[in-house]
């Protein structure tokens, strides 16, 4: 009995699946992770929005940062407050509540002017930057003195996206 086109296609696809499974088993090829297939992205650059309101510099809470060890982080100032500076500091590891700054090479502060940047890099060691959730303060100062009511930001360090 001759093979139909459908039967031939089934045999070819079955053989291809067996070859791919064999190659994957002996590590000749690797399949991408679900994250790579879905084009998952860490969010490592966020905006700190500042504006003058009633004679005071007001900041909106920044978006959550998701990253992994050794990655660079950037906070970009949007808006302006004359004679003010903005800093990112007072990191706390949420799991146990201890003060712990998982960053290094931190630009301590920037002028509260549109386009200014605060940059840091997440430390490369699990003891210095354990995976998990951190909070931090976005502080505004005028003449070096902190202004009350600054919002807390969130930073998640995780080995693979999605964090959680």
Descriptive notes:
This protein is an alpha+beta fold. The chain folds into two domains: 5-31; 36-157, Immunoglobulin-like. The protein is 15% helix and 40% strand. The protein is built from two helices and twelve strands, in the order ααββββββββββββ. It has helices at 5-25, 34-37; strands at 45-53, 56-59, 65-67, 72-78, 84-93, 98-99, 103-104, 109-111, 117-122, 132-142, 145-146, 152-157. β10 and β11 (145-146) form a beta hairpin. The relative contact order is 0.19.
What's a concise summary of this model?
The chain is an alpha+beta fold and about 160 residues long. It contains two helices and twelve strands; from the N terminus they run H-H-E-E-E-E-E-E-E-E-E-E-E-E. Helix content is about 15%, strand content about 40%.
* Total count of strands: 12
Number of helices: 2
Could you tell me the mean pLDDT? 81
CATH architecture of the largest domain: Sandwich
Classify the fold: give the CATH topology of the largest domain.
Answer: Immunoglobulin-like
Outline the low-pLDDT stretches: none
Rounded to the nearest angstrom, the radius of gyration is 24 Å
Helix/strand class: alpha+beta
How many domains in all? Answer: 2
């Amino acid at each position: 009995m001759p093979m139909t086109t459908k039967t031939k296609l089934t045999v070819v696809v079955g053989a291809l699946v067996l070859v791919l499974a064999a190659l994957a088993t002996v590590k000749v090829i690797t399949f991408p992770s679900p994250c790579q297939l879905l084009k998952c992205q860490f969010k490592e650059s966020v905006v700190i929005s500042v504006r003058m309101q009633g004679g005071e510099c007001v900041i909106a809470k920044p978006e959550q940062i998701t990253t992994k060890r050794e990655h660079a982080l950037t906070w970009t100032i949007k808006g302006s407050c004359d004679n003010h500076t903005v800093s990112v500091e007072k990191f706390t590891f949420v799991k146990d509540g201890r003060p712990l700054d998982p960053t290094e090479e931190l630009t301590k502060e920037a002028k509260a002017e549109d386009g200014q940047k605060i940059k840091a890099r997440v430390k490369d060691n699990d003891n210095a930057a354990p995976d998990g959730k951190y909070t931090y303060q976005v502080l505004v100062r005028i003449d070096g003195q902190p202004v009350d009511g600054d919002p807390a930001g969130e930073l998640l360090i995780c080995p693979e996206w999605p964090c959680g």
